[in-house]
Amino acid sequence: MDLNLTPDEQKFRDELRSWLAANVPEPWPGHRRGEADAGYWDHLRDWQQKLFGGGWAGVSWPVEYGGRGASPIQQSIFLAEVARARAPEHFGVIGEGLVGPTIMAVGSEQQKQKFLPRILSGKDIWCQGYSEPNSGSDLASLSTRAIRDGEHFVVNGQKIWTSFAQIADWCLLLVRTDTSVAKHKGITCLLVDMKSPGVSTKPLRQMSGDSGFNEVFFTDVRVPIENQLGELNNGWRVGLVVLMNERANLGASVYVSFEETMRQLIEHCRTRKRNGRLLAEDPLVRQNIAQAHVELELFRLNTDRALSRSNAGETPGPEGSILKLYWSEMNQRLSQTAMEILGDTAQLSTFDNGNWAYRYLRSRGNTIEGGTSEIQRNILAERVLGMPKSY
Predict the structure, then answer these.
(1) What does residue 71 show for φ and ψ, rounded to 5 degrees?
(2) DSSP one-letter code for 308
(3) DSSP of 213-229
(4) Is 354 left (phi over 0), alpha (psi -120 to 50) or beta?
(5) What topology does CATH give the domain 126-234?
(6) 220 pLDDT band (50/70/90 cuts)?
(7) pTM
């Protein structure tokens, strides 16, 4: 595996760095997670449209769909450089990273022409309707129903933990269309207009102050049959395509985020004192920092391994579960370490604008969202190690 940048990749990186230096806007004033208003969402939409105008939206998409046809390594460069430039939050990530590639893979030509340009330009923001109150990690047990009525499906049910649902224009929704077969075989994927009559959302405020997750309710929502994505009752396969894209998109930007957290923590240790000496001089602090650094390096190496596989043209596989499992638990340990090192003041909203307390509280959800740690371990046990299924 040779991940040294080729001349073309260096040119790509340098062009991107130059564009970001000239175009990344100032941070939205006064914004803290969980306190977003309409102005903040407009700020993010403007950023998406600026990326689109500059030719940097959907860089990994094929050229015929408006992307750059970037290689996996170029995509990794893009994610890392955008993170290092501290660009605004990318709230089109579900559309670009999950929905768009899935429509390309299994959608009709009509669906590609209708949805893909609007995803790329930021005109349509997407959410993903998977989890339900009684169907979280066991996705196949979902109960939201869709019944055929002429040229429409009529949808009734509820989804939960739905990111961006409060501002989304469309939802990629998994529903049950056949209750007489095995649970994996009676699911269909629908593309649902979030402005349809009968769709309502309710934000869920977490202990971190975030309210980016939502409950979504569907009451007699009529969805045109042309918005069925993939084959009827074969939505499980479509859903897996989405999940593989979700876990394959982990990596570079997450690593840069952790790297920045480590840098800030080390800087505090070099400048803050406890009991008359710098934190950086405390042997226990140094040991904890070293352990965190080792774990971060292991994450980088696993990311490079997954990137190498993608760059060789192989389909994203179980290594996505390794990355998700590793980074989610590593982030919890890193957040715990930071709070212990920085002490009581790190809990105050006046200390670094409350960012350390936010990181710690928000990290508790990492091992649930995007597939719980238990589910990731089952995937690795069954599909990598060949162990029997647990019942």
Answers:
(1) -75, 165
(2) H
(3) EEEEEEEEEEEEGGGEE
(4) left
(5) Butyryl-CoA Dehydrogenase, subunit A; domain 2 (2.40.110)
(6) very high
(7) 0.86
